[in-house]
Design a protein that fits this description.
168 residues, alpha+beta, Sufe protein. Chain: A, three-stranded antiparallel beta sheet, 54% helix
Length: 168
């Protein structure tokens, strides 16, 4: 008996879920750009008081381009994987591109179906998290921390990074 279209779609969806799970676990086990930058132009620390996840995002922005990015933190596999995936997604992009990607990612996490999945790439793996509202904060922690670091960069208010550079 030939499987129905619904059965085929269900099977494809299950295979995608497995693939996405693998992507998330790979980023958790082998985080990209984990560490710190010697002279970041901006940095910000984020904390989720609901679960205790924390993340620090550091950026080196030159000429409006995110040349380097690093994160540090601890927490669940979702928060740490999301931070790792974010660093890969934003490195080498202009600040406006990063801000646009932030909007696209957070819209996806809020349940929007009007997402350009080609544009967000592997970040699509985190889409399933939105089925668990309490975990959405885990997935977006690094992104909101990034947004605050960019806001501080725009305002020229990142005194911590400039103080740190002055000490060296």
């Amino acid at each position: 008996m030939t499987p129905s279209r619904e059965d085929e779609y269900a099977q494809q969806e299950a295979q995608l879920d497995d693939l996405y799970r693998e992507v998330i676990l790979d980023h958790y086990r082998n985080p990209r750009y984990r560490g710190s930058l010697p002279s970041p132009t901006t940095r910000h620390e984020g904390y989720n008081p609901l679960c205790g996840d924390d993340v620090t995002v550091e950026l080196l922005v030159k000429g409006g381009i995110v040349e380097e990015v690093a994160f540090q933190g601890s927490g669940c596999s979702i928060s740490q994987s999301s931070a790792s995936m974010m660093t890969e997604a934003i490195r080498g992009k202009t600040v406006p591109e990063v801000e646009s990607l932030f909007g696209e990612f957070t819209a996806m996490m809020r349940g929007s179906d009007d997402i350009d999945f080609d544009r967000i790439g592997d970040l699509e793996a985190l889409e399933g998290v939105r089925k668990f509202p309490v975990r959405v904060k885990c997935a977006t922690l690094a992104w909101h921390t990034l947004q605050e670091a960019l806001r501080r960069l725009d305002q020229g208010a990142d005194q911590a990074a400039s103080d740190e550079r002055a000490i060296r």
